[in-house]
Design a protein that fits this description.
P-loop_NTPase, nucleotide-binding, AAA+_ATPase, ATP binding, ATP hydrolysis activity, 5-stranded antiparallel sheet
C-alpha cells in the first residue's frame, strides 16, 4: 500500500468571474522511502495539489477527491484537529521563498521550538537541545548561537536550511519540498539538494520534490509525474522519462534544458509543441 495515495484530486478557486480549476483530476501516489518529482511549468498546479493534501489552501478553494489516504488514514474524513496532528508531524512541507515563510518578528530558535511544542511532549531543555541538534543536522554553523538570530540576520541559504530543520523536526514520514532551491545561487542550490537527499536517505522519508527544473529531477527522483494546466500528462520512472518520453509536452520540457540548446537561445514549449497538441493535453 502506498504511503500517500491521491485519486481524482480537483481544486477550484472561487473568483469574481466564476470558478477557476487549478487542479483537474490528478492521481498520484508515493511509497515509503521513495522520491517522487512533480514537474511542469509555473501554473501547472504542482504546488496547489500538494497544498490541498496539506489542507493549507485559502477559504475560497474547493477540494474534492475520490481518495486522499495517508498511512491508511482518509485525510478527507479526519476532523480538523486530527488532521492538524498529522500535518507538521507525519507530513511536512518546505515552502518556496524561506524569507517569506519565516516570521521576521521571532528568532529562528523560537520558531523551531514552536513546532516541537505543538507536536512533541518535550520539556524546555529538551526542546532547546533538539533545536540545536536540528540546526547542526542542516549545516548551520554555531547552532547554539544561531538560536537567537532573526531571519533577516541570516542568508537566503541559511533561512532555507532553517525551513528544512523545521520540516524534519518531528521525523516526518513524508516530506514535500516545493521548489526548495528557488532564488538561491547555483552553489547553494547544490548544497540544499545534497542535504535533502542525505536527510531523505538517513531518515527513510518519502520525498515529493516539486520543481520545474528537469536537472533537479534527474539528480533526485525515482519516479516523475509531469503536469500541464492542472492535469497529469505523463508518469514514469526517471530513466524512462528521460530516455523515452511518451508525450510531446514532456519531450518539449527536456528539449528546453540548457545543455540541449542548439542556437543563441532555448526554444519555448509553444515552439516545440503544436497548438493542437497542447489543446489536446489540456482537455
Amino acid at each position: 500500500m502506498p504511503l500517500l495515495s491521491v485519486r481524482n484530486l480537483t481544486v477550484s478557486f472561487a473568483t469574481s468571474t466564476g470558478p477557476f480549476k487549478a487542479v483537474d483530476g490528478i492521481d498520484l501516489s508515493v511509497d515509503a522511502g521513495e522520491v517522487l518529482a512533480i514537474v511542469g511549468e509555473s501554473g501547472s498546479g504542482k504546488s496547489v495539489g500538494m497544498l490541498a493534501v496539506m489542507g493549507l489552501l485559502a477559504a475560497n478553494a474547493t477540494v474534492t477527491a475520490d481518495e486522499m489516504r495517508f498511512g491508511g488514514q482518509d485525510l478527507l474524513r479526519l476532523s480538523p484537529q486530527k488532521r492538524r496532528e498529522i500535518i507538521g508531524r507525519d507530513i511536512a512541507m518546505i515552502f518556496q521563498e524561506p524569507n517569506a515563510s519565516l516570521n521576521p518578528c521571532f528568532t529562528v530558535g523560537y520558531q523551531l521550538e514552536e513546532v516541537l511544542r505543538e507536536h512533541l511532549d518535550l520539556g524546555r531543555r529538551q526542546r532547546r537541545d533538539r533545536v540545536v541538534e536540528l540546526l547542526t543536522a542542516v549545516g548551520i554553523p554555531d547552532p547554539a548561537e544561531r538560536l537567537n538570530s532573526y531571519p533577516h540576520q541570516m542568508s537566503g541559504g541559511q533561512c532555507q536550511r532553517v525551513m528544512i530543520a523545521m520540516a524534519i523536526a518531528c521525523h516526518p514520514k513524508l516530506l514535500i519540498a516545493d521548489e526548495p532551491t528557488t532564488a538561491l545561487d547555483v552553489t547553494i542550490q547544490k548544497q540544499i539538494l545534497d542535504l535533502l537527499m542525505k536527510l531523505q536517505a538517513d531518515q527513510g522519508m518519502a520525498l515529493i520534490m516539486i520543481t520545474h527544473d528537469m536537472g533537479v529531477v534527474a539528480e533526485t527522483a525515482d519516479r516523475v509525474v509531469v503536469q500541464y494546466k492542472g492535469r497529469k500528462v505523463e508518469e514514469a520512472d526517471v530513466l524512462t522519462l528521460f530516455t523515452a518520453p511518451k508525450q510531446a509536452y514532456t519531450r518539449a520540457l527536456l528539449a528546453a534544458l540548457p545543455e540541449n540548446a542548439t542556437g543563441d537561445r532555448l526554444p519555448t514549449v509553444a515552439e516545440l509543441v503544436s497548438a493542437d497538441e497542447l489543446a489536446g493535453i489540456a482537455r
